[in-house]
Design brief:
Layout lengths: L2 E14 L2 E14 L3 E5 L6 H8 L7 E10 L2 E2 L5 H10 L1 E4 L3 H4 L6 H8 L6 H10 L5 H6 L7 H12 L6 E5 L7 H18 L2 E6 L2 H7 L2 E6 L2 E7 H6 L4 H10 L47 E3 L2 E3 L4 H10 L3
Parallel strand pairs: 3-8, 3-9, 6-7, 7-8
Antiparallel strand pairs: 1-2, 1-4, 4-5, 9-10, 10-12, 11-12
Helix pairs in contact: 4-7, 5-7, 7-8
The chain binds adenosine-5'-triphosphate.
The site of adenosine-5'-triphosphate has 15 residues, from strand 1, strand 2 and helix 1.
């Protein structure tokens, strides 16, 4: 299967008063055409930065230091303003966590949807677009202002806008985190149905491991600004080969509700002020040895997935013996 987007060795830092904070420390991620790929990890692991980097919609204080991202043949960091605008308009769709900040509070929903659609759509076409995102009573929704909608409906309006030009890649950053637990599953199902129908790829960034296990074809696990394990959902989540994936799963297998933030593992994720020259998970890792705090692990293939761990085979074996 071909890749619609590919990030290789991406380094992005944020300028802060304490110096350059390295949010991506050589992140690699390929999104295949037509797949749903979930990126999971604790808060601060770099998910949002990677998602924003895909469309070069990073905040002004972010600096791209190294690496390359290609989306549907466009080198996003080398692209000029016009190419980038066309890429964002025609090939990419974004859905962020809070629909109320994505929508213009002063404009009726119908007009906002119309502006995202190609040409000059009539009311019937705008209503049809809202129906695609499974909004009931589209005629009423079109006349409404965003504050008159529930959170779930507002997120569906954002989805209708994001898919208005049939993007090749839809990037959804915590699309259900601000919603009630009862509608998370439904909104996720809508996103997946739209992906199925359009043949687009869906990249979902999420804390919600269980929700992603139900919806994603593949899972990428991020830690310390790198993708530490990526592979088919069933394989990665049933028999993880990275100790961090294992720890995340152990944390998610407890009593938490779907959508709750992952609170795993003793210790805190690293705040990198430069390139990590070792394994950034070593201080929290039950499998850690001398080598882990001395040698930076590089991606390698282990049992059908890519993993960044010196002792992945050992971790995999113990996952098979004591599955999460
Ligand atoms: N605008 C910013 N300025 C400074 N530091 C930032 C900025 N945005 C993110 N960071 C830092 O970059 C690192 C990665 O953040 P990022 O938001 O990409 O992670 P995340 O996995 O998406 O977390 P969350 O789920 O909480 O959004 C974190 O240490 C974060 O504090």
């Amino acid at each position: 299967m071909s890749d619609i987007a590919k990030a290789s060795g991406v380094v992005v830092s944020y300028r802060t008063s304490r110096g350059a904070l390295r949010a991506l420390d050589g992140a690699d991620l390929a999104v295949r055409a037509g797949e749903t790929l979930a990126v999971v990890g604790e808060s601060g692991s770099g998910k949002s930065t990677l998602g924003m980097a895909m469309g070069r919609v990073l905040p002004a204080e972010a600096e791209h230091e190294a690496g390359r991202i290609e989306v549907d043949g466009t080198d996003v960091f080398a692209a000029g303003a016009e190419t980038l605008r066309a890429l964002r308009r025609d090939k990419l769709g974004f859905v962020f966590q809070n629909p109320m900040t994505a929508l213009d509070p002063t404009m009726r929903v119908g007009r906002q949807v119309a502006r995202a659609m190609p040409g000059r759509p009539g009311d019937g076409e705008i209503a049809a677009q809202l129906t695609r995102a499974e909004l009931p009573d589209p005629a009423r929704v079109m006349r409404a202002y965003p504050h008159e909608l529930s959170g779930g409906m507002a997120q569906r309006v954002v989805i209708a806008i994001a898919i208005a030009r049939s993007p090749r890649l839809l990037i959804a950053d915590e699309p259900t985190a601000s919603l009630d637990a009862s509608i998370r599953e439904k909104v996720m199902a809508t996103l997946r149905r739209l992906r199925d129908e359009s043949g687009a790829s869906l990249l979902v960034l999420s804390h919600d491991l269980r929700l992603m296990a139900r919806h994603a074809d593949r899972v990428a696990v991020m830690y310390g600004g790198r993708v530490v394990e990526i592979g088919p959902s069933a394989q990665v989540l049933e028999h993880p080969a990275h100790p961090y994936t294992r720890a995340l799963l152990a944390a998610a297998s407890g009593s938490e509700q779907p959508g709750e933030r992952l609170e795993p593992i003793a210790g805190t994720p690293p705040t990198l002020m430069g390139r990590c020259e070792a394994c950034s998970f070593a201080p929290r890792c039950a499998f850690s040895r001398d080598k882990c705090s001395k040698v930076r692990p590089e991606p390698r293939k282990v049992a059908g997935r890519e993993v960044i761990c010196h002792f992945a085979e050992e971790v995999l074996e113990s996952s098979k013996e004591a599955p999460q």
